[in-house]
Amino acid sequence: MAKIDVVSHIHRDPVSEHLTIRRIGTSDLMDALRRGAEDFWAAPTHLFFICLLYPILGVFFAGLAFGNNMLPLLFPLMSGFALVGPLAAVGLYEISRERERGQDVSVSSVSNVFRSHSIGSIAALGVLLMVIFIAWLLTAQALYQSLFGWHAPDSLSGFLHEVFTTRDGWTLVIAGNALGFIFSAVVFSLSVISFPLLLDRDVGAIPAILTSFRAVAANPGPMIVWALIVALALVIGFIPLFVGLAVVLPILGHATWHLYRKVVE
After folding, report:
1. Using CA atoms, how far apart are residues 210 and 202, in angstroms rounded to an integer?
2. What is the distance between the alpha carbons of residues 263 and 241, in angstroms, rounded to a whole number?
3. Are 234 and 82 in contact (CB under 8 A)?
4. Domains of the chain, residue spans
5. C-alpha distances in angstroms, 147 versus 79, 133, 191, 216, 261?
6. Alpha helix positions (H), 192-219
7. How far apart are CA 70 and CA 244, in angstroms?
8. 21 - beta bridge partners?
């Protein structure tokens, strides 16, 4: 029963699934971004994200140096980063929450997440995102192998030539992006509101996920625009050797907290 309670919290918050969802507009999205940028400049976390990102990237590129088996997963890994981004942003939500309350904030405020009343549900939802991320990588690998077989590309240039100059390559691009869209749409819908809600209120993972889906269903237009803003910002962050992500990710994280505040009454 204790394990079930971590996921549902049925007896603790019976009205969690009846939370009022507000309708928002494009102006609310812009205001959330503005507030997110203000939170970032109040407590810059770019050094934290640089320390987090570059060891991960170093391991990946070290794997490339020892062989070409990881080349087909280059784009899925980069694009799949957004699938686990909501989990990494939980600490940013905490900074925005404390600043909203008028408390003194710093990068160390991130550690307060581990004392949250919903840390078990946050962890459970994080595990779900990791499972979806792994499922995405396996799906991408299976798609590549169904088109090009089990052999590894000879080189990066050979791999790019296969992808962009052959019929199978364009099938990989089109089908891969379509599948990636499905994965990202599911993750966006279940996580855009659920993580901030779990940090803010004593609810379980399932009510939080359902509330997130309800929020997206109630605001399809603005949520699509928000998803496009996130995607474009991540692309911009990737361009300068991933350095931009150290600024883009924190601002998006803080902005998502303010989006949650606007959507959930």
Report:
1. 15
2. 34
3. yes
4. 25-263
5. 20, 22, 32, 35, 45
6. 194-200, 205-218
7. 24
8. 264
pLDDT digits (tens, 9 = 90+) for 19-30: 899 999 999 999
Cβ partners under 8 Å of residue 117, min gap 6: 202
Asked whether 208 and 125 are in contact (CB, 8 A), the reply is: yes
- Is residue 99 within 8 A of residue 43, CB to CB? The reply is yes
How far apart are the C-alpha atoms of 34 and 255, rounded to whole Å? 7
35 in Cβ contact with 258 (< 8 Å): yes
Type of residue numbered 134: I
155-210: pLDDT as tens digits: 778 888 889 999 999 999 999 999 999 999 999 999 999 999 999 988 889 999 99
Give me the residue label for tokens 């905490």: 94
Tokens of 101: 């309350």
φ and ψ of 224, to 5 deg: -65, -45
Scanning the structure block, which residue is given the tokens 């050797």? Answer: 241
Instruction: Give the global pTM.
Output: 0.84
Q: What are phi and psi of 14, to 5 degrees?
A: -65, -15
Count helices and strands (H / E) in the chain: 12, 0
Distance of CA 190 to the CA centre of its chain: 10
